[in-house]
Amino acid sequence: MCKKYGAGFVYSEFINVEGISREIPNSMRMLKTVEEEKPVGIQIFGTNLDSIGKSCRILQDKVNLIDLNLGCPVHKVTCTGAGAALLEKPEKLGEIVRTMVKNSSVPITVKMRRADRENPEEGYAQTIKIAKIIQDSGASALTLHGRTVPQGYTGKADWSYIRAVKEALDIPVFGNGDIRTRQDYLDIIKQTNCDAVLVGRAAMTNPGIFREILEGTLPNKFEMFFEYAKLADKFEVITANSASHSVQKLKVMAQHFTKGIEGAARIREAMNTVHSVEGIMCIMDKAKDGRFVVNNQNTKVVKSFYTEESITNKTEQTVEKEIVCSYV
Ligand SMILES: Cc1cc2nc3c(=O)[nH]c(=O)nc-3n(C[C@H](O)[C@H](O)[C@H](O)COP(=O)(O)O)c2cc1C
Predict the structure, then answer these.
(1) How high is the pLDDT of residue 273?
(2) Which of 23, 85, 106, 239 could bridge 78 with an S-S bond, Cβ 3.0-4.6 Å?
(3) What domains, with CATH codes, occur in the chain?
(4) pTM of this prediction exceeds 0.85
């Protein structure tokens, strides 16, 4: 969806090189990409050079870019020396990037956070030092997320570090952190002169952001939701048997996609009364045409109806569909 709405290229979430190199089924499933996503990159993390090399050899035939994660602040990852921990191990980092370049026919890119130093001058110096090691080790481009590791996802991304790295490097530098609107995009380009902009969280809940950034218009939010639901079903992000985590996931996405639209609160309220994919789809289907009206009283009726003994011999889904649709 991000590609369809204008993204120039996309990366996967990070995948452990131990899983890829041993071709563990769950990791191989995470590597799945489709033609429409291309150009697409897979992001890896890890520290073992043999596993990194083997992973790159496996990936080079599947994708257009291989990216190294140098930004993950989660303890489970950093305690193994991977992710953001590599920001403090320049020599090891250089070895890893060189191993990736040697074992890959597709470009290697790296995504890092800015270095954490109390003194800003030292912060800029360390960030640039790491960026130069990445460039000198053969990486084709670098993404900088303008937060430190201790910041996690809090506070503000400091774009001045992106400008400093852009000025210091010859390879393309991509800016990342806090891009939520077209104006943010215009501002980061102006302030940093970066070569591309990577959008994280905003794209996870609104893939239409790329059209907004490029053209200034947003796609219809209901259309995006139905498109998401169809793709999620096709690629088994949600499953047809309405497992509870699927239902929860789809509910959350329905709420994300309808955020800010008129009646969003009522849709959210109605979502609390359904427990199946069918129920969610039914609410969204009615809501898209503005035919959906539910108030507190109706929601209560749904709840009490739902516990009536008379409906126990029907499937949950059938009953929900009947109840929700009867509101229209
Ligand atoms: C739930 C979640 C998962 C993330 N997973 C990854 C990841 O696997 N690889 C990565 O490079 N960044 C990951 N990030 C960080 C984002 O890519 C991005 O760098 C960060 O959120 C800042 O950009 P944003 O303000 O556009 O979100 C993740 C962020 C969140 C919130």
Answers:
(1) 82
(2) 85
(3) 10-213 (3.20.20.70), 221-325 (no CATH)
(4) yes
